[in-house]
Amino acid sequence: MVLVDLEFPSILIFTRSSSARRAIEIVRNADGIHIPLEKLLAAIDERTLLVPISMVLFRSADILDARAIIERAHHVGAHVVLDVFQANRHGAGDVTALQTDFAVGGVLKWLCGGPGVAYSYVRPDCARSSPRASPAVRAQAAV
Prior knowledge:
- The protein is of the alpha/beta class.
- It has 7 helices and 6 strands; from the N terminus they run βααβαβαβαββαα.
- Helix 4 links the parallel strand 3 (50-54) and strand 4.
- The longest helix has 10 residues, at 66-75.
């Protein structure tokens, strides 16, 4: 798994487990604002299975190049979970055009929605090909 150190704290909680730490590479920022794209893309390699990434970093509002990250991950056979929660105010874009594997977001902050309202997206071919996908996910992919 490849993460960036400017992710939302609940995402970084995975790094606290000693068993998980060995399988996670954290790309560090240099200035507290930006994640160097070249450094992030270089960290995504053939060992990477999953890249959970925010389209817009909550700490700095830095907008990441989701397309480049997704293309690199797919090139090495990894999946991407694209967090678009902070991107709602910027226009999250078309997750199907980006070809992300999974996307998650919510309406609390920028869409002025109520607490607890969230949404997710699973690319149909990912849902169909996963033997562990829930029946609800497989049903959605069949529609």
